[in-house]
Amino acid sequence: MDAERYTTKSSPWSVPETVDRLTGLIAAQGMTLFATTDQRPAARGAGLELLVWDDGGRTRVSYVTPAALAARHDLPPELAAPLAGIDGLTDAALTAPSHD
């Protein structure tokens, strides 16, 4: 992945648990989640905005950087600013204690 266009972070949890943690935080923030899809066969080239994947036994979370996403859609600053929230959301999902 192009390092300037994508951010990739490691998760200490499995792919399903990481997805559960991310979707739980999205719901807790009152955000709308449009869909979760198992895209394993096509995920590499799909242009997904947020991808949770297995990298040889290590769970990774990758997403288009807010700046690249804003540029792709030619967003004005006031619409682009909230996109930066993805960094904190993924940090929280990947570092918060498990709710088990």
How would you describe the overall organization of this protein?
The N and C termini lie far apart (33 Å). The protein has helices at 15-28, 66-72, 77-80, 85-95; strands at 6-11, 50-55, 58-64. Helix 1 (15-28) crosses helix 4 (85-95). A hairpin with a 2-residue loop joins strand 2 (50-55) and strand 3. Mean pLDDT is 82; it is low at 44-48. The protein is an alpha+beta fold and 100 residues long. It has one domain (6-95). Helix content is 36%, strand content 19%. The protein contains four helices and three strands.
Low-confidence regions:
44-48
Strand content: 15-25%
Strands side by side in the biggest sheet: 1-3-2
Number of helices: 4
**Main β-sheet description:** 3 strands, antiparallel
Tell me the domain tally.
Answer: 1
Helix percent band: 25-40%
Give the SSE order as H and E letters: EHEEHHH
Report the radius of gyration as a whole number of Å: 14 Å
Shape: globular
Q: Report the span from N to C terminus.
A: 33 Å
Query: How many strands in all?
Result: 3
Chain-averaged pLDDT: 82
Which class do the helix and strand fractions yield? Answer: alpha+beta
